[in-house]
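Archive record:
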Amino acid sequence: MSDTLSIAQPAQKPRQLTTRSGLVIEVVPATDQDGDALAAFFDEVSEQDRRFRFLSACQHLSAEQIDVLTHPDHFRTESFLAYDPAKGELVASAMLACDGKLDTAEVAVSIRHDYRALGIGWALLDLLAEEAQRRGVRRVISIESRENHAAIELEREKGFTPEPFEGDPSLVVLSRHFR
């Protein structure tokens, strides 16, 4: 079996990650069966955090937004769900979306408000970077609202460099290069 085919298969076992705070989370690829859990998760995410993640105001995710998160192709796109195994609760969502040439990938992370500052963002950014490199991606970007100081600071600490977002001064692109 080629590497390309093996990448396209979702992981069968949850992947355990230990955050900087010592919290253990289990991360799995999202499936079409996770729509209700993701809708409920994003209903619990603050309005500001939903705006930062989707770069638009919304009280609830649309069916189309849920569909994107629950139907990744497991090669160019991957949607990860992070659970607190001790409580069985969905605590974070992370997305990797590669361009057609697998040259650049965009990442996005959302964390439930009561699980912030526990290192989940650090752990998920590391996972997304690892997955991008596994696919041969040379550059990972995150598009952030300039108001999202916490995400910008975290990404800078993880080696991302800020640059202007062409055409919209309210946004910034943070990029990290591999190789």
Summary: The mean pLDDT is 87. The domain at 3-137 is CATH 3.40.630.30 (Aminopeptidase).
